[in-house]
Amino acid sequence: MSEENSQGREYTLEADSELRFEIEQKDAKVLVTLLSGFAELFGTELVKKKKYEFGVGAKVAIFTYQGCVLLVSGKMDVCYMSKETPMVQYVNCHAALEQFRNEAEERDGRGPVVMIVGPMDVGKSTLCRILLNYAVRVGRRPLYADLDVGQGAISISGNIATILIERPASIEEGFAKTAPLVYHFGHKSPGGNSVLYNAVVSKMADVTLQSMDANKRTKSSGIIVNTCGWVKDSGYKHLLHAARAYRARAIFVLDQERLYNDLLRDVPSNVHVVLLPKSGGVVERSKGLRHESREQRIKEYFYGNLRTPFYPFSFEVKFQDLRLFKIGAPPLPDSCMPIGMKAEDNKTKVVAVTPTQALLHHILTLSFAESNDDDVIGTNVAGFCCVTDVDMERQSVMLLSPQPRPLPPNSILLWSELQFMDNHA
Ligand SMILES: Nc1ncnc2c1ncn2[C@@H]1O[C@H](COP(=O)(O)OP(=O)(O)OP(=O)(O)O)[C@@H](O)[C@H]1O
Hints:
Layout: E1 2-5, E2 8-13, E3 17-22, E4 30-37, E5 40-41, E6 44-45, E7 51-54, E8 59-64, E9 68-74, E10 78-82, H1 87-106, E11 113-117, H2 124-137, E12 143-146, E13 159-164, E14 181-184, H3 194-212, H4 216-221, E15 223-226, H5 233-245, E16 250-254, H6 257-266, E17 272-276, H7 287-303, E18 313-318, E19 324-327, E20 350-352, E21 362-367, E22 381-391, E23 396-401, E24 412-419
Parallel strand pairs: 11-15, 11-16, 12-15, 16-17, 19-24
Antiparallel strand pairs: 1-2, 2-9, 3-8, 3-10, 4-7, 4-9, 5-6, 5-8, 12-13, 13-14, 18-23, 19-20, 21-22, 21-24, 22-23
The structure holds adenosine-5'-triphosphate.
Adenosine-5'-triphosphate is lined by residues 20, 59, 61, 120-126, 148, 151, 229, 279, 281-283.
Subcellular location: Nucleus
InterPro entries: Clp1 (IPR028606), Clp1/Grc3 (IPR045116), Clp1_C (IPR010655), Clp1_C_sf (IPR038238), Clp1_N (IPR032324), Clp1_N_sf (IPR038239), CLP1_P (IPR032319), P-loop_NTPase (IPR027417)
Keywords: ATP-binding, mRNA processing, Nucleotide-binding, Nucleus
């Protein structure tokens, strides 16, 4: 039921229903206030009487277990109430994970590692957010690993990342992304370099599984792993690889029975594979929109957003001072490989890149590694720069960077396939 008044429209939601809306118009602003009852946005509770503001790109569902009244004002492109939601199944999954966590606590073991898998646009990131929020709301401190290099929820695309979740996501801004562990991959799909992708995932899994042992609460809370929407052929193999690397205890499959059955067949029988429905509210994104949202994430990395603007720096770096590398050398036939090396080894080799005009607009990853002989794949990323100009005459590039010049001494930069046109006015 909804009623218009001078301050906006009041929506009265029954128990177990949600209000969904989307904002597509630039400069549109929607304000939402919880007037009575209880409501949550992807697992974060709304505070009564507080005004929440949403802008362009927002695709939102405000769910209530008990029923509530919401006041909504502003221009939306889509807005409707729905009683068909999978939230009860999702909260049951949380309850099952809590059992594993309790067991882990009793025997001082590791809590559950759960992977969320499914094709594109089925709500994988949203389910991760819901499960993480529910976990912190009951006092857990889980890790969130994001292996989706296409639409990363923690870092920008082309990287995989892990963060510790210590408090519920902010309604408007999502999880705080302080002190993430980020590993460079450099492509927007695992297919860009499958061997490297598996190597980076293995590294991330080893490091996070070990580091969780250091903190009792995190150890028993476990890890929620978000994955790519590529679930066929090699994409499927990547999922199996990740499940093994993380020693997944459970795999939640969203919306695809075939994937569910394949996993049931291929993972060890002690891994719980659960098929879950996707929410009817999840919005499908076209290729163009996915590209836009990748660009938007990069733009926010450099420039922040309206609430928290950032002011990046731009400076020149001479080619001779640019220690630029790329992971993955072109394949050589086996007959040309040194004895003992396989063609696959080339895929994880760190090779020097000679700067040319082709670098223009590319994202370069600043690694904490100090030399290409270090374990570059397993070294945390310090940040990102973007090449905004290449001057072959002056033998220099202009870099857009969140930090002022100079680049840290001895730092190495890693080439990424990702590009960003810096047209910020
Ligand atoms: N119940 C819902 N109602 C309305 N919008 C929703 C709902 N659930 C998710 N969304 C929105 O749908 C969009 C896609 O969801 P999400 O990013 O979780 O999907 P995904 O499967 O992780 O996508 P990807 O293929 O990029 O990995 C998001 O913008 C999210 O806010």
